[in-house]
Amino acid sequence: MPKLTKSNGKYTIDKIHLSQANEMYLECGECLEVDVKVVDKRHITDQQRKFIFALCNEISYYTGDDREYIRLLMQQYNANLREIEVESLSTCSMTYANNLIDTIINFCIDKEIPFAKELLEENKYTFDEKQTYAMALKRVCVVCGQRADIHHVDAIGMGNNRQKVSHIGKRALPLCRTHHTYCHAIGDGAFIEKYHLTPFTVDKKMEIFIKKGKLRIDD
Predict the structure, then answer these.
(1) Does 40 fall in a domain?
(2) CA–CA separation, 96 vs 1, rounded Å?
(3) Minimal CA–CA distance to 100: which of 70, 83, 78?
């Protein structure tokens, strides 16, 4: 990957690889836009590496494919998605490892590939809002992975017609019946804190799903 350095007031880009079209563009006196980011000098941790291998093992177990093949596939998929080069899991940075973990988990959510909840707990992984939203569309409980309904963290209110009132802007979580009941028992705040959850905000797309009956909705 190209590196940008500064010496004596001059900026230098090392090991840059441009396409023939971009080379010709520069030769014509034009300029190219570039993105600059800080290089993470922290090396991948043993825990991150073990987490990545464990997630790939889960996919391997579900698909029946060789786990080494799955690991290489996920690394190439991550590289293509983020437009970066594949890096070795023995020398990559913590940022690269974290992004790869996110990519693998997003892949599992999208393809509805189950993985052990204990893996998330052991590695203190928390679903972000986009992942929680995706799980809601899949009707997957954000706590245990079972079939889920949509629970409003910001309640619609008793007596309101759910087909007429706007859900947009309300925070919600996909929860199975067991965790939905438990959430009501201890309260939203305590429940979210206990399971380190990130509610998503209902947008127009989700509201259409709710009102058309594609997703069940409960206060």
Answers:
(1) no
(2) 13
(3) 78
How far is Cα of residue 121 from the mean position of the Cα atoms in its chain?
16
> Max alpha carbon distance in the chain (Å)?
70
Q: Are residues 116 and 196 in the same domain?
A: no
Domain residues for the domain of 58 are 46-122
Residues 52-88 have pLDDT tens digits of: 999 999 999 999 999 999 999 999 999 999 989 999 9
How many separate domains does the chain show?
A: 2
Look at residue 6 and tell me if it is in a domain: no
Cα angle: 66, vertex 127, 180; to 5 degrees: 110
Give the long-range contacts of residues 138-142, CB within 8 A, separation 24 or more.
138/109, 138/112, 138/174, 139/174, 139/215, 140/109, 140/112, 140/174, 141/174, 141/175, 141/176, 141/179, 142/173, 142/174, 142/175, 142/195, 142/197
